[in-house]
Design a protein that fits this description.
The chain is of the alpha+beta class and 140 residues long. It has one domain: Heat Shock Protein 90. It has 3 helices and 5 strands; from the N terminus they run βααββαββ. A 5-stranded antiparallel β-sheet has the order 1-2-3-5-4, with helices on one face. Strand 2 and strand 3 form a beta hairpin. It is globular and about 40 Å long. The protein starts with a strand and ends with a strand. The relative contact order is 0.20.
Length: 140
Amino acid sequence: MANLIEIKISNKIPEIEHVCEEITRFSRQYAVPDKDIFTLHLAIDEILTNIISYGYSDKDEHYIEIRYTLEKDYLKLEIIDDSNPFDPADAPEPDVDSNLADRKIGGLGIYLIKNMMDEINYSSKNGKNTLVLTKKCKHK
């Protein structure tokens, strides 16, 4: 049996904090390890910031849906929005070996998410983007 919460926010940066608070509260009810909650916070912050800051071609209000599910041995974060399509798998890998002063800005957050999550799936259909992040996780 899955344990699920759904959160709907507008495309405003301050809304990200609300999402992290709800995810933390829900996760603690099921004894999700703090390291996994921290990983979720990083992923949520990076993805929602990118959607809100770069995903829309207008200044209108849009809504983003977040579904967070705890299954037996993993957790799943699903983000659904109507921003411009963007598949994180298509993002170029940042040059993590070069000197900090020589690196291009951007791309590091997605790189971290790719390395912290066990699975990342993206789809775009009928004007909606769906990004699903899955991480193996022991919880009660």
